[in-house]
Amino acid sequence: MKLSQIFKGLIIATFFFTILPSTNVNAALTNDDLAVLNNAPNGIGISNYMSNAKPNVYDSKDIYDTNSAQIVDHTGSNSANGNVIALASGKNTYGSMWSTDKSFDINKEQTISAWLYFGSGDGSSDVNSEGIAFVLQNDSNGISALGAGLEGIGVYGYDASRVNFIAGTDADQSYIKNTAIQNSVALEFDTDKNNFYNSNNKPLNNNNVKFPTLYSYYSLNGFDTQFGTSTSNLTALGFPDTARYGSGGTYGHIALAYPGIANSYQLGDISEYTAFSPFKKGYGLVHISPQANYLIDAYDEQNNPVYWHHVTIKWTPAAEGSNDATLTYYFNDKNLDYSDNTTTKGDYKPTTDTIKVDTTKLNTTDGKVRWGFTAANGPSDSVASKLVALDSIPDLLYADADASITDTILNKTINADSTDKTVANGDKLSLNYQLNYLQGNVNWENIAAKIKLPDHVTLTPDSDGNIAYITYADGTKEAISQSELTDQTLQHTLAKTLGNKTGSAGTTAKITISATANNDTTSDIDVDKAVATFTGSNQISSTNSPEFTILAPKQYTLDLSNDNSDIDLLYKADNATLNLENTLTYSDNHSFGDNDSTTNIIYQITAGSKTYNVGATASGSSFKQTIDLKSLMNDDDFWNLFTLNSAQKVTVKAIDQANGLISNTVTYNITTKPNKMLSLEVSKSLQFQDVNYGDTTKYLTRKNDFDLSVTSLRSPWQLTVTTNGPYSNSKSLNNNLALVYRQYNDDNFTTLSNEPTVIDQESTAHETNVTENIADEWTKSTGLLLEQLNISPAGQYTGMLTWNVAESLPNE
């Protein structure tokens, strides 16, 4: 009788198992999920890049034979133009969505950014279980690849543990491995504590077979169990030293795992936990670099619940000769409006980690694998959907954005890393947003800029009614009209695409917005970051303007005086300098500082069309500074500006950036004078007295006035002359006549020839122009004379004098 009753129980159990319906593939989203979708991040359209298919079950006991993942729009409806992946919707659902092609090249740097929604159930596993995983895979099933539901999160294997007649048959390690996604790496965002030691935990079955029912298979639900703290066995199996048995975390954890290798599933003793009877052992999952995190039950600093969690994942390929790539994630790095999450405490603070990845686990020869997301829901009727919205897609394109503020008055640029972030009231600011196309296979298209302006700045349109301009890498400019500004938010769609493909305007675009800083209070104003998003049809990038401080207006001024307003510059003088001497004071005579405290000053010097900056550290109540302008300029630029005999104006003003003060402008008048000068003035003709044939006068005197003078400046000189005559009728040389020279009456005559003869010299370098009139000192018996050596035939004789004045060594 007893045996008959047991046999009857067996028949009932088997019959109950066979009539259960399978999980619905496209379960509807709950009202709570739909409300979250209404406020979901935009996300990019993904149907052109991702797809999935019904999974291939491993064998007859593999119950995970559906795929609930679907692409939906913000209403929750299936849509080819949808921008949200609903991976699991409804209880016990599980799903995967993959890149249609093997588009992830592990030999290149890759970046993906996405928003994840797990639900918000205040720590309730009923609502939030089980989690989402980002997965790289090279499974032969391609877009049909899918692991187990429940604790398998759609990527790990099925812990198919069977209830027998008098005992439990543990799952086989190889079976769990074979039912997982093969050749894969998973970064899991696990929202449930699947731990044998959790008093609320129990075996589960996706077909809703109640535990324990004889001859049914169950997931023992213990993949997160921490079987002790020793990891020596794991390192012996080839895992890194960051590998752990299971994972902690009350409200979730993030970790890396290798779903398709048998050793990722480790058997542990659970005999003392009666909730799992008749099973004595169960499998836990090896987690690499697990980090506890509030994936659910998170609240921001204003105590608002956080539904969508942003994550940026960066892949760095293995170095040459190595198989170790790295995966870095930044979780909760952005708020829902794309502003930077700067929370420093509580559940919502950003977390990051860099994890080494063994690329041999992907088993790829060409480096190409699929990427995608998997997820699973728990068995509760109130479980939340697992949703993903993408900002960027790996290997499609990756672009980022940077923001900075330039104070054109104080002459400084502020970015996120700046230590000095102060501007002054009334300063002209340039709000700069730089878009950078970094890599990709397509151009970044239809980029809609939405820029929230920082508080306490105003925009003033130019004469054309424009408040901003875009400068593309190809040099073209695009105006942004004042009409595109509403409630301190500027919205404009770029007319051009960015990228490295045909039709783009290059890989960068800089948006420059002209603004003015406003502070009419008596206290400094700290201005918070302001978010800017750039949403294209295939990429969403964001940035934040840096925090900065608008100083309260000062009640004193910065005064500059020049000590030498008129300066003579010697043109191209050796070791030339142009020293601009000045004195700086405060109007109320307070000090710039002493030996322990100083004030940083920037001098702004304008010469010609260029401006130069010089920094100085001021101290004392009156600070004197000498600026050598020539040392700031290229030598050619300097002398091209300060040309010989020119008059130029140079202006200088001082900037106290720390106090937001700008001095008055002083002017220096620069006159460029010759450095050296040497010139010669000489008459074009010289005539000697006529003589009658047979006249034997030895020295014939000059019969016309003759001018011969040398003018010099800082140049000692020597004057020489040569001659080639005299000739008869300019043809025949007359050897009976010779041109001679003597300077003084008691000197001997020197006969001139084609060899230079020194006429006069000056060994002093005069600091002012000095002219020596040499011929004025000649008498009838000195200077140039014509000597008759013999009787010359009658006729007219001519010759040529060649004069040369040259710089000589100065008299030391």
Automatic annotation (TrEMBL):
It comes from the Bacteria. Residues 1-27 form the signal peptide. Keywords: Signal. This is WxL domain-containing protein. It comes from Companilactobacillus farciminis.
